[in-house]
């Protein structure tokens, strides 16, 4: 039988993914501020594409808590909400704990070296007060175990909700004890190398739970800045 033509389908999927990642990154890095109104026509013009993939991207972003939509009225960048952030933090700590537990039996020397290299970049970025580099290298560090776990469901959940925490880390990065994170990363690597899946996974959980100091509420229940 002839091979079905799929170019159009692939093109649409790529447009939708590009729109999602571009808008997500702009929200996480603060280019699009909390409470800012999002217009799909303006976003489409910015991205150089039709409004359809933009609308699909906004629906996906709403699912991960980065935008809020009132049908027929508005779509805005989600306000910072400490309660939501705490809920996401709990889930992410559990997901990374599971990722490391599943990854440990499969980690190679090359992957352990990649974790060390990412943590070295993370430490250097903290010393240089380079928030972008710190977040990127932290993602690289944790991404080694997530990929090695070979668990696609776990990976999808982590990818969906990590931006919620990264957004807060960026805005309040100076309040984090970054050097403690470097030390926790080193501990995770040491335990992984020793084949201690339970110890390494517990250290990964503690690493993500150490973000608690970011989520401070004011007297009205809003995230303080």
Could you explain how this protein is built, in words?
By secondary structure, the chain is mainly α. The chain has 2 domains: 7-77, Winged helix-like DNA-binding domain superfamily/Winged helix DNA-binding domain (Arc Repressor Mutant, subunit A, Orthogonal Bundle), CATH 1.10.10.10; 82-214, Up-down Bundle (Four Helix Bundle (Hemerythrin (Met), subunit A)). Helices cover 67% and strands 4% of the residues. It has 9 helices and 2 strands, in the order H-H-H-E-E-H-H-H-H-H-H. Strands 1-2 form a two-stranded antiparallel sheet. A hairpin with a 3-residue loop joins strand 1 (67-70) and strand 2. Helix 2 (40-47) crosses helix 3 and helix 6 (131-148) packs antiparallel against helix 7 (152-171). The N and C termini lie far apart (62 Å). 30% of the residues are buried.
């Amino acid at each position: 039988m002839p091979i079905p033509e799929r170019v159009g389908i692939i093109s649409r999927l790529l447009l939708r993914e590009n729109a999602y990642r571009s808008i997500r990154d702009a929200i996480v890095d603060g280019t699009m501020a909390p409470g800012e109104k999002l217009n799909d026509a303006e976003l489409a013009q910015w991205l150089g594409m039709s409004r359809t993939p933009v609308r699909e991207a906004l629906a996906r972003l709403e699912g991960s808590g980065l935008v809020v939509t009132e049908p027929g009225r508005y779509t805005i960048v989600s306000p910072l909400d400490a309660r939501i952030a705490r809920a996401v933090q709990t889930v992410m700590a559990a997901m990374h704990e599971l990722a490391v537990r599943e990854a440990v039996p499969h980690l190679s020397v090359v992957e352990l070296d990649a974790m060390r290299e990412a943590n070295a970049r993370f430490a250097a970025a903290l010393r240089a007060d380079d928030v972008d580099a710190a977040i990127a290298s932290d993602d690289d560090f944790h991404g080694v175990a997530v990929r090695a776990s070979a668990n696609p469901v776990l990976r999808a959940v982590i990818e969906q909700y990590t931006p919620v925490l990264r957004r807060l880390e960026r805005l309040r990065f100076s309040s984090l004890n970054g050097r403690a994170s470097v030390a926790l990363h080193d501990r995770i690597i040491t335990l992984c190398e020793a084949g201690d899946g339970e110890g390494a996974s517990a250290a990964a959980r503690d690493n993500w739970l150490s973000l608690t100091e970011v989520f401070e509420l004011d007297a009205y229940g809003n995230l303080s800045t």
